[in-house]
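does this look right to u?? magnesium ion version
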Amino acid sequence: MEFKITVLGGDGIGPDVVAESIKVLDAVGKKYGHKFNFEKALLGGVAIEATGQALPEQTLRQCLASDAVLLGAVGDPKYDSPNAPVKPESGLLAIRQGLGLFANIRPVKMFSKLVNSTALKPEIVKDVDMVFVRELTGSVYFATPKKRFNDERGRGAVDTMQYHEDEIERILRVGFELARKRSKKLTSIDKANVLKSSQLWREIAEEVKKDYPDVTLNHVLVDAASMYLISRPSTFDVLVTENMFGDILTDEASMLAGSMGMLPSASLAGIPSDNTRCLGLYEPCHGSAPDITGLGIANPIATILSAAMMLRYSLALPKEADAIEKAVNAAIADGLVTKDIAQVGQKYLATGQMGSAVADKI
Ligand code: IPM
Ligand code: MG
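got this back:
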């Protein structure tokens, strides 16, 4: 089969890690007889540089006309000043919203060979295998008012944490569906002891639960959840939460897998399925990593595993997705690591060598 994939390398280490995904996808294409046509487009800092906009019109159009979108990372310290008129990150938010990608799926899994590569004790992390379902197009990231203002007390600023029931219901359904396919345990994370939006979230979770009698639902407050993620992470399976809680908790959870460089993600406009094709955006959970840009040491595994998710959820190629995941497993089982997951004194591979090692295992 033939597919059109829009590639948004973005900023920092983005283009480097995406190049390794393409290497692996080309190996998959060769083995299974598919043609992936990669077409580049601009997003983030590089787009601001070229067009003045973080998400140029042309990029959005090209994404809408493709089978899937593969993204590296956006973000450039050049635009860190609070007064920068456009920020690279605004392009990322705009593309998520523009493509209607409300469901962000972030799996966190421990590879057994890496149990000694995390900051936690091996017995705590050894069985970690969970999936976050993060709401991606609502809440405090998008709701208005969202602005700076001046009044008699001086400077002020407001962001709005707001949800409507349809937004909550559809993301919870994604959580329940995923839970149904896994261990039938869903944890919903909120701050219902304080926030109105969380109280509504919890109420709707209980209503949706009625359609999923086979799934156990439990509610955990976000502050407690952040503690349990460290103290007993393997008790979690599928977790569903609102946009900002999901952002924060998934960075925390990445440490359970050894590194941010291990965490893939899929952003979808519906319930993930192995058998139907739908547009999605696939990106590592890590950022543009300006501190290591150009050093050739970035870990490409998160982006390679994101490509596997792309094959599964956007291109309906589950067998090929499995092949990538197995290849990553095999490379890690051989003791191949990048700097971020290497133990003290262990030899590590450069970004391109790691990508080639995975491609060779396909
Ligand atoms: C993520 C990132 C983004 C987010 C940033 C870069 C806007 O942290 O994908 O988790 O906050 O969603
Ligand atoms: Mg984040």
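The CA atoms of residues 265 and 336 lie 22 Å apart. idk if thats expected tbh
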